[in-house]
Amino acid sequence: MPHFISDTLASPRFQLFATAVLSGVTVASLLLGYQALEREQRLSELRNSIPSLADDSHRTRRAKSAADKEDARNQALARRAQAGDFDEELILEQLARNRVFLTPDGLQKLRDSFVIVVGCGGVGSHCVASLARSGVSKIRLVDFDQVTLSSLNRHAVATLADVGIPKVQCLQRRLMAIAPWVKFDLRQEKFDETVAATMLGPWEGGREPDYVVDAIDNIDTKVELLRYCYDHKLPVISAMGAGCKSDPTRIVVGDIGASKDDGLSRATRRRLKLQGITSGIPVVYSTEQAGEGKAELLPLPEEEFQKGSVGDLGAMANFRVRILPVLGTMPAVFGMTAANHVMLRITGYPINYVPAKGRDKMYEGILTYVQGSEEKLARLFEPGTIGLKTPLTLGDVAFLAEELYHARSIISGIPTRLVLIRWRKPETSSMKVMGEGKDMQKSSTVSLRDLVCMTKEEATRHEKEIFKAGKALDEVYDAETIARVEAKLAEAAAHEQYR
């Protein structure tokens, strides 16, 4: 073997291959570096051109100086207002419409509140702007990103002059000029579970947040935030996907268990159900369905590259990109709907959303059926078995029944009297025993990848033919049904990592 390796290393072909690989890596690094510099130069040129369209350098400097003075004035006013040196009557006059609507007591609750908004893009920025304009006095902003050119079609307050600055700083910069008494706590960091306790922790003086707004568009961190809020009983509302949506009349507030019609909502709901959270989190979502002629996620057409500046939309200039289509009005509606919910909850204003149909009783019935079925199966190997525990939760049942099988039988498509049952008969005992005597624990070995959704009548037949009579699956079901079931079982196996 050593001789083979030395011959390979000495081979002219290997040396030529290694040289080519190293050259390719070097060229790629130079290319990426050049493109990054090129992009930064273009953005810098754009920012420098914003103060004035005139070529007169004196006027350009004067415009820039005026902008700096305006920022300084706003900052000075904000410092005075937050220190209490601001006429209370002027604040009440600015908030007069809210005061009449919410009552003086309701407005005071809003002014005393502390709200955290995680994600300050299209949805989050409109939510923050609405909260600040309406009287919330303490707002923590959490976002690691910066304002980009493509942000400007949907961001609430960003201008061309803000391109390249952190989104949290942009919001504070613009909103302090509107409501200088609002105190902002800026956290320019990426949210994840490792920093959740800090990001969602108390304000100065130990004040816990009155509400948390989730405006994250990343599934992993979204689930981590919602799980943390759920576990720590922090009031939270989550904004689902505004991408590819166009109908504002379809945007509703409902429970996480009822949101079904967008990819972000579906993926978030699945992950949460696998972690045992089937309800109890309000979400803003759209019931709009995809359809012919409507926007969808597609590769960028070649003709778009001919229009120029397409690279500004991607992570790196001059690279082919895929863009999530977003109509600028829709994130605003999502964000304002979330802010509206927060304000009503904090002030105690009556909320009468149309309730979604509860499914917990159905899940409990299915879980009971699984436990009974597993006991019967265990008795085929161990007669007299009773008291068998099942390693499934209501979240597991909800995921399988609703998300994987869409509340329909995999055999017939019928949506009534549904149960879950093993697809294959175990070759050996399906029972695991731990301990002895009074400390003995008997449990089933069933997992998500074992169970299929059927009607109760179909499950009875399946139990009789497959489990008791010992027939092969292809003796009872046709090839198309078996293939359909196997695909679902493989999908369940892939999702078990999120339990």
UniProtKB/TrEMBL annotation:
<keyword id="KW-0547">Nucleotide-binding</keyword>
<dbReference type="GO" id="GO:0061504">
    <property type="term" value="P:cyclic threonylcarbamoyladenosine biosynthetic process"/>
</dbReference>
<protein>
    <submittedName>
        <fullName>tRNA threonylcarbamoyladenosine dehydratase 2</fullName>
    </submittedName>
</protein>
<comment type="function">
    <text>Catalyzes the ATP-dependent dehydration of threonylcarbamoyladenosine at position 37 (t(6)A37) to form cyclic t(6)A37 (ct(6)A37) in tRNAs that read codons beginning with adenine.</text>
</comment>
<keyword id="KW-0812">Transmembrane</keyword>
<feature type="domain" description="THIF-type NAD/FAD binding fold">
    <location>
        <begin position="97"/>
        <end position="352"/>
    </location>
</feature>
<dbReference type="GO" id="GO:0008641">
    <property type="term" value="F:ubiquitin-like modifier activating enzyme activity"/>
</dbReference>
<dbReference type="GO" id="GO:0005741">
    <property type="term" value="C:mitochondrial outer membrane"/>
</dbReference>
<dbReference type="InterPro" id="IPR035985">
    <property type="entry name" value="Ubiquitin-activating_enz"/>
</dbReference>
<dbReference type="InterPro" id="IPR045886">
    <property type="entry name" value="ThiF/MoeB/HesA"/>
</dbReference>
<comment type="similarity">
    <text>Belongs to the HesA/MoeB/ThiF family.</text>
</comment>
<keyword id="KW-0067">ATP-binding</keyword>
<keyword id="KW-0472">Membrane</keyword>
<keyword id="KW-0436">Ligase</keyword>
<keyword id="KW-0496">Mitochondrion</keyword>
<keyword id="KW-1000">Mitochondrion outer membrane</keyword>
<dbReference type="GO" id="GO:0005524">
    <property type="term" value="F:ATP binding"/>
</dbReference>
<dbReference type="GO" id="GO:0061503">
    <property type="term" value="F:tRNA threonylcarbamoyladenosine dehydratase"/>
</dbReference>
<dbReference type="Pfam" id="PF00899">
    <property type="entry name" value="ThiF"/>
</dbReference>
<keyword id="KW-1133">Transmembrane helix</keyword>
<feature type="region of interest" description="Disordered">
    <location>
        <begin position="54"/>
        <end position="74"/>
    </location>
</feature>
<dbReference type="InterPro" id="IPR000594">
    <property type="entry name" value="ThiF_NAD_FAD-bd"/>
</dbReference>
